Amino acid sequence: MTTKERILQEAEKRFIDSGIANTLMKDIAAAININRRTLYRYFPTKDELAFEVEMIVMKQIQNYLSIEVEETENNTGFEKIEKYFDNVNFEDIKELMKFTAEFDRYFQNDYPTPQLEESFVQSLNPHNDLLYKYISEGIEDGSIRNDISADNLFHFISQNFFALFQRLVLREKHLKNEYCDQVDFQQLFKDILLSGIKNKS
Fold first, then answer.
1. Which domain holds residue 136?
2. Which CATH number belongs to the domain containing residue 103 in this structure?
3. CA spacing 20 to 30 A to 73: which of 46, 108, 158, 168?
């Protein structure tokens, strides 16, 4: 790996284990045997480093979720979304979701730099996401309700997906003792989502 890749890998690990606020740049540098001056040449601030890690993690999650659904001529957009969520296993992305939860808790103010803001926003463009494509197809072919725009449906689904699974990561040990031990949240999310977007007319 390059020095930059080693920095990003070590930072991700430490941000997840200790939290972004509690992670010191000197400890990241020491862990991969470089001096702080070298680290700061790549990442002038810890905030910039955390944003770079977040973009990598979000790309990994997007790549995982963007598994091409086997298509036939008769697949509707709704059926593609159904298969899309059949392919999602929460356990596969647990550590990635844990980092996004830590990132969202730490960053609630301005972006570190205008350049990072532009890169970050562009990395989240819904028009590059397969789920958005399937929603749009479903509205067009009549299998998905058309009283809500594809943009609004996509953002509602994706934001709720992250909110739910981030909470499951953070509260996993406790939820078992809080009357939730028999709840299959992943299946419920899928069932309620599909019921809500399906065109029933």
1. 46-197
2. 1.10.357.10
3. 158
